[in-house]
Amino acid sequence: MQRTPSTSERTPLVQPAYVFESSISRSYQKRLRNFQCFVCIVLIVLLSVTLLVTVGYNLGLETSALENEQDDNTTLPATLLPLLKMTWPLSGKPSAAWMSEHPSSEAVASAVTAGQEALAARRKLESGLVPLAMDTPAARAQRAAATKAAVKPLAESAFAAEHATRVLANGTNPSLREGGVGVGPATNGSFAEPAYCRPPTEPCVMSKYRTLDGTCNNINNPLTWGVSNTPFRRVLPPDYGDGISSPRMGVGGAELPSARDVSVTVHRPSYAHDTTFTVMLAVWGQFVDHDITATALSKGENSSLLSCCAPDAELTHPECFPVRLDVEDPFYQDYNLTCMEFVRSAPAPTCHFGVREQLNQASAFIDASTVYSFTESKATQLRLGVSGQLKMLKIGPWELLPPSTDPNDGCNTVEMTAKGRYCFESGDDRANENLHLTTMHLIWARQHNRVASALAALNPGWDDDVLYQESRRILGAQMQHITYAEFLPAILGMDVMWALNLTLQTEGYTSAYDPDVDPSIANHFSAAAFRFAHTLLPGLIRNVDAANGTVNYVHLHEMLFNPYALYLARGTTLSVSSAINTPVHSVDPHVTTELSNHLFERPLVLNISSVPVKKPGPCGLDLISLNIQRGRDHGLPSYPAWREHCGLSRPKTFEDLNEIFDELSLSRICKIYNNVDDIDLYTGALAEQPHGRLLGPTLTCLLADQFLRLKIGDRFWYETDDPQVSFTMEQLQEIRKTTLGSVICANEDLLDQAQPRVMEAPSATNPLVDCKELPQPDFTPWKVPGPVIPAPKKPSKKDKKIKPKKLL
């Protein structure tokens, strides 16, 4: 083989055959290995850097996500952050144990006898009392409570047990403290007690339809939790003056300032409006309130109205608790009045000796009982009995609620009755309390019949019962949806809704039902907290007639117990229009004199003929005084205790309120109350600074807790995944299209336009649109092929039943 040229050769690779010298080959291989190592090192470094960057980026994302999650939980203002530290729903403070040694059987028997004798003496007194005059503001106030006749025997039983408790307490000298005598021995049928004091005798019938009275919603507590005619739920032990039943006193047993003096001093009027929301917010709040609460009042013989301002003290009923009026009262002195009528709430049987409780006549659940009633007799009375329809009154082309022909219903007047104009019947006896409320009852009665007609067209084989029950089921779901999609976000804020699991799902089901959550309405919610909406109402209601291009105003008190405008051709339209066009008052201690001086004055009757009908009457009542007095009547602890219950700072001195109340409210509260622990819950909660929100932290807390219970403590909640009671997925999506605006537009033919969110004022983000543009549910998913089993009217042996896991 020919050797290659030497390295000095300029063109070493010109030969057809060549080889490297051995020394050159080893050097090249070494360099090659070094190059390969370098490349590997570079690759390793690059991979390491890439890995570090990736890990760092992912860690950054996780940190950002954690920060975002933390931000989501801390978007609440600082005043509400303590709420996040609480466990929801909130746990109440347990009732105190009986504050003495266990009484002997002889002592119990003696106390029972004393209670029965006290009841007999009360009945004898009642037989000689003169009932309250009917056509007065005080009578209308008592009528507005709509106490059913069935309450009387329950209240008498509780009255006897209450007196017996006092005898037992005096005999054993318990050391009374916060919470009073506590829970004593069971009464064991010593008095005429209700069914819920005994173990259930019948298992619950499992149906997809609710009972009217709320029984069997909670299988383990079928006769008590959320059931009508049962006691309100206590969260904090009551603070009664005598530890048993007398109204709350001040610190150390001192007398509290008159409720009227508190009203005049702290709750004087102002004219600040909240242009974000409309009066429809307050209207819906009242409609929901009447669906879930109905506090029974004490009554006289044959359920007569009690008069509590009689000059003869010996002829005063023991259930009277009138409001003292100062002789120099800025309003009532002109009428020479020193007493405002007030009757205590009816006591509720508790099945044991102990402190006084109050009775909720309504079922606790948002179930459209305002439309259907919570009693079988009234529900049957309202039904047409054909095609699932409710009875209506035809006036030309329009349908109104059926008339109430009872001359003593607190609403009807002689003048209007003579003209063939009556007040109205509905599922709730308070429907005539104000024109906007009556209109809401009318809208939803029409909605029921509209839904029933749609279902009948889809399912010709459905009978009256199935059409009625399915329509009722749909309306209850729509009321729940509107409340949690429109009302609660307005009053609580979406941040609170998210933080406390109050939001609704946009699709799918929820499995949030908790059978251990008691949904019963809390005493403080009914007697104080949910009454915040009274401050929303302005003194003048704006009436807008778009058809005629006119605007006028009407005094608020002239709309109370005055539903006759609905008989006018455009009456319903004008009523709805005024509610969605009038801005609300700011939520604060200030209240219009229309409510604080003129409540339930007989208004001027609206012109429905060529001759206007006028009837002057006595001066009105003060709603704020009545609210404060009701809280004391129920033994609600003072305002500081409720802040502590919510995890908020508990003020111990007036100075501690500097950052909680606004300066003006604090100065007035310091002037009227002797001690910070004397402040009434209603007054204190309204005086809190809302910091840009609608409500202060205490009201936010108390309302959120109750509405959370109504959501997760309701077995029939409309989003539930329970196959025994749930809607189909398609049906549920149609229900989610419901808005209050769409319901109003669908049932008010002459209303051409409305803003999509009618509880909010029209704006660039909530513009007026044609009613036909608002989405409406399509009821096609309710079409069922083949025959349908009729809805059961009464339990039968073939019905599936579930026994309660525990007895009362």
UniProtKB/TrEMBL annotation:
<keyword id="KW-0812">Transmembrane</keyword>
<keyword id="KW-0349">Heme</keyword>
<dbReference type="Pfam" id="PF03098">
    <property type="entry name" value="An_peroxidase"/>
</dbReference>
<dbReference type="InterPro" id="IPR037120">
    <property type="entry name" value="Haem_peroxidase_sf_animal"/>
</dbReference>
<dbReference type="GO" id="GO:0006979">
    <property type="term" value="P:response to oxidative stress"/>
</dbReference>
<dbReference type="GO" id="GO:0022412">
    <property type="term" value="P:cellular process involved in reproduction in multicellular organism"/>
</dbReference>
<keyword id="KW-0964">Secreted</keyword>
<dbReference type="GO" id="GO:0004601">
    <property type="term" value="F:peroxidase activity"/>
</dbReference>
<dbReference type="GO" id="GO:0020037">
    <property type="term" value="F:heme binding"/>
</dbReference>
<keyword id="KW-0408">Iron</keyword>
<dbReference type="GO" id="GO:0046872">
    <property type="term" value="F:metal ion binding"/>
</dbReference>
<dbReference type="GO" id="GO:0005576">
    <property type="term" value="C:extracellular region"/>
</dbReference>
<feature type="region of interest" description="Disordered">
    <location>
        <begin position="779"/>
        <end position="808"/>
    </location>
</feature>
<feature type="transmembrane region" description="Helical">
    <location>
        <begin position="35"/>
        <end position="57"/>
    </location>
</feature>
<feature type="binding site" description="axial binding residue">
    <location>
        <position position="534"/>
    </location>
    <ligand>
        <name>heme b</name>
    </ligand>
</feature>
<keyword id="KW-0472">Membrane</keyword>
<feature type="compositionally biased region" description="Basic residues">
    <location>
        <begin position="794"/>
        <end position="808"/>
    </location>
</feature>
<keyword id="KW-0479">Metal-binding</keyword>
<dbReference type="InterPro" id="IPR010255">
    <property type="entry name" value="Haem_peroxidase_sf"/>
</dbReference>
<keyword id="KW-0575">Peroxidase</keyword>
<keyword id="KW-0732">Signal</keyword>
<keyword id="KW-0560">Oxidoreductase</keyword>
<keyword id="KW-1133">Transmembrane helix</keyword>
<protein>
    <submittedName>
        <fullName>Chorion peroxidase</fullName>
    </submittedName>
</protein>
<dbReference type="InterPro" id="IPR019791">
    <property type="entry name" value="Haem_peroxidase_animal"/>
</dbReference>
